[in-house]
Amino acid sequence: MSETVPNQRSNVDEIDFTAIFAIFWRHWKLILFGTLAVTLLAAVLSFFIPKTFRSEGFYQVSLSVPLYKKSAPQFSNPNRFYLYASEEKSFSKEDLAKIKTSFQTAADINKWIMPVFAYAKADMREMAQLPKEESNSVIGLNLSYEADSPQKAYNFVRFFGQYVRDCLLYVSLYDYVLNNYSNTFTQMNTNENTLFESKFNLLQSTKKMSDIKTILTKYPESGKIESRQLAPGFLGPVTQLVGIESVLADQQRTLTALEREKEMLLIKSEYFIKCKEDLDKAGKHGELMFSQLKSIKFELFKKKDFHKDVVKEVFNNLNNDLQTFDLAFFTNCRFISGPTFPDRHIKPRKSIIVIIACFLSFFFFMVLTLVLHWWQRNKKAILSDPMK
Fold first, then answer.
1. Which residues contact 113 (CB under 8 A, 6 or more apart)?
2. Domain boundaries defined on the chain
3. What is the pTM of this model?
């Protein structure tokens, strides 16, 4: 008895499977042609789906992590981003309208601008063995963008590079002006105090020398005393005069150096006072601020006498500073690779759309076949039911 029941269940299962297969076979035209029609329709519609192109590029920078973190809020500011984009000639009004709606938060900007660190998290174990002076830094930025045309994608990535460089330059120049403005006046105060002290010491030494000369005049015989201590801690008048004259010579050289430093600091302060006054005129544009600093330097020094060494030295120092910025942000900041000009779209993937449409439609028509078969078998009973 126990052996017949499994056999019966097996026959039932086999009959059910065969019946289902027979239903599918009976309606094979519906399944086949329905699937083909939907697949063909999906293939045709895929040609009308807007295409998406992706451009990428690696932009080289050389920044400390603190400077990058300090600069990041600048280029992730949506208002600043839109203002800078509105001045870019390669963007149309439609592009600007899209920028205004697509870049409304810092996250909208940061997802296309990814920093590349010299040492990634995977390198932390190796970093533990590095010298203490070896620190992490940002060596570049992975820039990318997706647009409805290859040209737009390319333009945006190129724009990202220029935009980030300008933001970094602005932050660096702003700090440079404020730090030098503050440091210059601190140095001027220190120089002034040191000058007061040096002049006082020089005056004291001069008075001491005058007093000793008075002693020699009053006691001419003291000048004939040998150069030796007359008493513990006391030298002869002539010996003291020689020593004081040596000290006076050193004090005079120190005073001359301080006067020279003061003159240089005054010229330097003129420059940075003017730079600080004009900080806001650049409107947070790094490149414009850089041109402004060079223009201020030119206007200031064209009125100076270049026959003076102090003028030449301050001019050369400022020139070296500006050349350092030029090298860092206009020579070293550049695309190492890209921006790429995409030759094919990444979306939509027509083959994937067609395959998915084929499978889904095939499954749909198989289920539809079963539903139609069930309806044909039960429609008389359903229609004749008095409750309906």
1. 75, 76, 141, 142, 143, 160, 164
2. 184-331
3. 0.72
